[in-house]
């Protein structure tokens, strides 16, 4: 018989009973097979009971009562947005983008290790992305300013001769 299971929010299948164990099947894993009206927990399905005969019930894991905010996520987002807004002001947008990246750097490393621990991973990712964009735009506008300054100086020297 072929089953489908939900692991980490993803529907996986079709598969046999032994394959379900390879995916870390627990009594609380949602399972569906042809002929079933809805998904059920594997532990509630009599035909799968033999899979759990040697497995003790899952111990409750201490879950944090409430998710924490990523430190630096909001600050990184604000700095990134400001870096884009001020990117045409040479050096200002560049510095704001740099500091946005600096603020989010350590938080992003921690996020990649355990994204489920904190609540605002999207804010952190968004802050990192807009900081990169603002930083690059700041570099472009600073280079344009430097080119204009050189051209003005060369034009003034040419007029002076």
Q: Could you please describe the fold and organization of this structure?
A:
- This protein is an alpha+beta fold.
- It is 50% helix and 11% strand.
- It contains 4 helices and 4 strands.
- Strands 2-1-3-4 form a 4-stranded antiparallel β-sheet.
- Strand 1 (3-7) and strand 2 form a beta hairpin.
- Helix 3 runs antiparallel to helix 4 (121-160).
- The longest helix has 40 residues, at 121-160.
- The protein is rod-shaped and about 95 Å long.
- The protein starts with a strand and ends with a helix.
- The mean pLDDT is 82.
Condensed summary:
By secondary structure, the chain is α+β, with helices and mostly antiparallel strands.
Q: Report the average pLDDT across residues.
A: 82
Beta-strand residue percentage:
5-15%
The side-by-side strand order for the widest beta sheet comes to: 2-1-3-4
Main sheet overview: 4 strands, antiparallel
User: How far apart, in Å, are the first and last alpha carbons?
Assistant: 91 Å
Outline the secondary-structure elements:
Blueprint: E1 3-7, E2 10-15, H1 17-22, E3 30-33, E4 40-41, H2 73-85, H3 92-113, H4 121-160
Antiparallel strand pairs: 1-2, 1-3, 3-4
Helix pairs in contact: 2-3, 2-4, 3-4
Primary descriptors:
rod-shaped; alpha+beta; single chain; four-stranded antiparallel β-sheet; 4 helices; 161 residues
